[in-house]
Write a structure and sequence with these properties.
Elements lengths: L1 H45 L4 E8 L4 E5 L5 E2 L5 H13 L8 E3 L19 E3 H10 L3 H11 L2 H10 L6 E2 L7 H5 L1 H14 L2 E3 L1 H13 L5 H11 L18 E7 L3 E10 L2 E10 L6 H22 L16
Antiparallel strand pairs: 1-2, 1-10, 3-7, 4-5, 6-7, 8-9, 9-10
Helix pairs in contact: 1-10, 2-4, 2-5, 2-9, 3-4, 8-9
Length: 325
């Protein structure tokens, strides 16, 4: 009997040791595989003219990789995600009704978007303005929304409350009488706008912002659900989303300046949700050719990430799809 117990104990010990060895090998394999992915992404980034940084987090597998993740980049329109967060919070708190209406004023009008062609005093719904700002990246909708919720300081307060310490909306609207009189502050803002444009952040923090919407840290469950729905209604989907099969839900926002380009995405993939941010900055004389090269790099990074987590998936963007980009 004692001999049998010793035999059973020995078998159990061997099984545990075997399982530990398999887990150890699997752990090493995962780390090696993630290292391979990082090398692939870094290679794409390094071949891109200018500077390109990215940040990736696979929530289910807990994989994290980044390049220049804590470096400052111009956000361009990707920072409209933060404006949306501050706006939706005011709906949640009851300060603004989602279906309330205001009129468009001349100061709201800014080139780049559908609302630019609307007549002064056109009545627009709060929900409509939020959706247009994100889905179409409408600049007139953006200014109107900033005026509606209380301006730049309200957005930056929301950003800071959510721990994004290096993230800042620089564009000022509406401009207060106090700011108009402060010449030193005006000059400082001009320098910041010349350097960063609309706003500034890092690949890690902008990825974190999107992640907060996924896990509910950006607001109530109802608020973050609404934000995710809005982010899936993208007109400009030729970036990260273009490398994901069309039957997979992608919540995204892109941005572009004279010599900058960026993209954010939450990909609800079969392997689990992952969040990806990509930011690029070109030389002072960046041309349309540079923008084309960066767009290719953004798509290349997105494709590499998708294929890494779905190696048996046979889908690729079909021939001729570039005609729609």
């Amino acid at each position: 009997m004692n001999s049998d117990r010793r035999t059973i104990g020995l078998i159990a010990a061997l099984c545990v040791a075997s399982m530990a060895a398999v887990q150890s090998r699997d752990s090493v394999s995962v780390k090696a595989s993630l290292g391979t992915l990082k090398s692939q992404l870094d290679s794409i980034a390094q071949k891109t003219p200018g500077t390109l940084g990215y940040s990736l987090h696979h929530l289910k597998m807990r994989d994290r990789v980044d390049r220049l993740g804590d470096e400052l980049f111009a956000t361009d329109s990707t920072l409209k995600v933060a404006i949306m967060g501050a706006a939706i919070e005011q709906v949640t708190s009851g300060k603004i009704a989602y279906k309330s209406v205001r009129t468009l004023i001349p100061g709201d009008r800014n080139a780049g978007g559908f609302f630019y062609s609307f007549r002064d005093n056109t009545e627009l719904e709060f929900k409509e303005v939020v959706h247009q700002m994100i889905a179409q990246s409408d600049n007139t909708a953006t200014l109107m929304l900033m005026r509606w919720i209380g301006g730049t300081d309200v957005v930056n307060a929301w950003v800071q409350q959510h721990g994004l310490k290096q993230t800042r909306l620089i564009s000022q609207y509406p401009i207060s009488p106090e700011l108009e009189k402060n010449e030193a502050k005006i000059e400082e803002l001009k320098r910041d706008v010349a350097k960063w444009g609309m706003g500034v952040s890092t690949p890690n923090q902008m990825r974190e912002l999107m992640e907060m919407i996924v896990d509910g840290r950006a607001g109530s469950d109802a608020a973050t659900d609404e934000m995710r729905r809005i982010l899936t209604h993208q007109y400009f989907d030729e970036g990260i989303g273009s490398q994901i099969p069309p039957w997979v839900s992608v919540a995204s926002k892109s941005g572009r300046g004279a010599r900058t380009r960026s993209g954010l995405a939450v990909v609800n993939s079969p392997s689990g949700t992952y969040v990806l941010s990509i930011f690029a900055q070109g030389p002072p004389d960046a041309t349309s050719t540079w923008h084309d090269e960066v767009a290719t790099s953004i798509r290349g990074i997105s494709k590499a990430v998708w294929q890494h987590y779905h190696p048996t998936d046979k889908w690729t963007p079909p021939a001729g799809v570039e005609k729609f980009w």
